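Onboarding guide, step 5: your first structure request.
Type a short instruction followed by the sequence, for example:

Predict the 3D structure of this protein.
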Amino acid sequence: MKHKLKQKQNQRITRITDSTLVVGADIAKKIHVARAVDFRGIELGKDCVFHNDQGGLTKLATWMKELGQTHGKTDIVFGIEPTGHYWFPLAAFLQEQGIQVVVVNPHHVSKTKELEDNSQTKSDYKDAKVIADLIRNGKYSEPKLPTKEYADLRILMNLREKVSASLTQVKGRIGNWFDRFFPEYIGVFKDWDGKASLMTMRAFPLPADIVAKGARDVLAHWKTDVKRGVGIKRAEKLYAVAVASIGLVEGAVAARMELHTLLGQFDLFNDQLESIMGQVMRILENIPGVIQMLTVPGVGAITVAGFLAEVGDLNNYDHGQQIIRLAGLNLKENSSGKRKGKTGISKRGRSRLRALLYRAVMPMVAKNEAFKSLHKHYTTRSQNPLKKKQSLIALCGKLIRVLHTLGTKQREYNAIDVMGPVRSYQIQQEAA
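The system replies with C-alpha cells like these:
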C-alpha cells in the first residue's frame, strides 16, 4: 500500500466493493457482538453474539460465510476497535481462516457514534454497527501482527520493560530502607549495587552489625571475593559512620528480613533481565539487516530490538514515512484562513515506539557526528530554526528512515544516509 495518506485512503475506499461483506465487532472479555453491512451501509442479516472461545469463534466464521453466500458476497473484511488485548486470539483465528482483519481508531468510534441514531447512547450492539460503517468508508488500518521471530521479540521486549520497571521499584525501596536504618551508608558506597557493597548488605546490614564485627573483620569478609578496589581505609570509614549512625534501632529483626527480601528481588530481576537479553540477542542474530543497523553510531542492541519489536518485519513497509505515522510522529497543524497555527506531532501511534526513538536520539546528538551536525543545523539555521526538543523529534523521524533503509537494503551505515549529499555539503559550508 502506498505510503502517502491520500493514496492510502483511496486504496482503502476502493477496497470495499459491491462484493464485500463488511463486519464490525465490539470486543469484550467474554462475549462479543458482530454486525454486517454492505458497501452502501445497508445492514445484512441479524447480529451475531459469540463467546471468546473455540466454539464462539467458529460460530462467527460460519455466520460470516453463510451471510456472504446468502447475499452474494465473495469477500469479507472484519473490523474491530483495538481497545484491549482480548482481540489478539480472535484476529489470529480469522487470519487462519483467510478473513482479512482491520482495526478502527477508538477515538473515531467515540466521535461518530451519534451519527448512527442521533443519540449519546453507547452499547456493544451500537458500537458494532458504527465500526462497520467506519470500515466501509475507508476509515480503517490494517494491523501488522508480528509473526515468527518478531512475535518472540515483541513479547520479550515487553517483558523486559516490565521487569526493568520492577527492578527500578526495588532499587527505590532499598534506598528507602537506607534512609531509615543506615542513612550514612551512601557516603561510603556511592553505588550500593557494587560487589563489595552487596556483600556488606548481606552480611552486616545494620550499623550495629558492623560495629560488632569491626573494620578488620569487615575487610576480611570483602577479601574472600573482592581482591581489588576496597581496602582498610574503606572498612575504617564504614566502621566510623556505623558508630555515629542516626539510623533507627527499633525493629532490627524485621529490618534485616526486609533488606534480605529486597536483595532477593534485586537479584531475581537482574537475573531475569540477563536471561531475557540473552534470548533477544539470539533472535537478533537471525534477522536480516540487524548487523547493518547496529553500525549506526549510538544505536545499540536494545534500541534495534525495541524498534523491531514494535515495527515488525521492515519489508512490510514501502517507505519510512509509514513507520513515522505508526509512531505518531507525523506532523499536525491547526490553521484556518489567514491564521496559521503551530505544528506538532499527532501522537496517534505507538507511544512505546516514540519513547524508544526519543531515548535513542538524545545520546546520538552527542556521539553521532551526522546527527550532531543536523541537530545544530536545525536549531541554528537562519530560516525557521527549531527548538531543541523539536529538533530531536525531527531526528527521530530521520532515525526511522535510516534504520528502515539499512534494514531493508542491508547496507552499511554512511553519514550520507542521514544528511544526503546536498545537505551534507551545505552544513560543511556553514561550519567553514
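Each response can be followed by summary notes, for example: The domain at 151-281 is CATH 1.10.287 (Helix Hairpins).
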